[in-house]
Amino acid sequence: MAAAVGARPASASVSAASAPASAAPAFCKGTIYLTFDTGSQSQAELIADTLKRHKIKATFFLANEKTVRGDYSLDPSWSAYWKARVAEGHAIGSHTFDHVVYAKDGANGKIVVKPGFGDSAGKPISLSSAQYCEQIQRVDQRFVELTGKHLDPIWRAPAGRTSPRLLEMGKACGYAHAGWSPAGFSGDELSSSAYPNEVLLKKLLRDLRGGDIVLIHMGIWSRQDAWAPANLEPLISGLEQKDMCFATLREHPDYKK
């Protein structure tokens, strides 16, 4: 689901199914950190296949979001998918269980959020630090049920909306917050008529530099012309041609243990 940061426009589209994987660079001029937030999950298989073909390890942030299958992304029906990502060595973090979007700091040390899913979906609710921690940790608890493995100790606030108080809540819960770089905003939740895929791709390839964290969603309900089928393969290939390497946030200087 969507990030609330300004658009980062980009170009060329290639079929992911037909494009061969580029050879990994002999040396790295920089490292790019691809990250994927759950969403409609319409692009889940394409993303997994593309990363596997390029031998890339990325980072996923999970919330329990409704998918195009009619289920939810942390239902048992997704167990095999997440087990496969663990086996491939990807990093997995929390995106809060109900995709709770921060609205403002509230009274008595609480925060006001609007959940995207769950019993309070669409309604502003106040959460204490312990209650927000539960939102982060519920993803870990469900992930253990699905895969037998714990999450990495990282989380991403839905829509990227935070405050110092919210970040402190995550830290107190034992999780480091991972946003994304300004140049790494893929724009995949923006209107495809106003921000065509080729424009978004061109901007990413022009602006990304070593060390940047890229935000991509695993499917967006509102975007008519889905971003990933047109752009993920050429983005990776274009960065490889610039001798960029890829890594999970486990290797990022800010998140290394």
UniProtKB/TrEMBL annotation:
Domain NodB homology: 30-247
InterPro entries: Glyco_hydro/deAcase_b/a-brl (IPR011330), NODB_dom (IPR002509), Polysacc_deacetylase_ArnD (IPR050248)
Coiled-coil parts of chain: none
Pfam families with a match to the protein in the record: Polysacc_deac_1
One GO biological process term: carbohydrate metabolic process
SUPFAM superfamilies per the UniProt record, alphabetical: Glycoside hydrolase/deacetylase
GO MF, one example: hydrolase activity, acting on carbon-nitrogen (but not peptide) bonds
Protein known as: Polysaccharide deacetylase family protein
Lineage: Bacteria, Pseudomonadati, Pseudomonadota, Betaproteobacteria, Burkholderiales
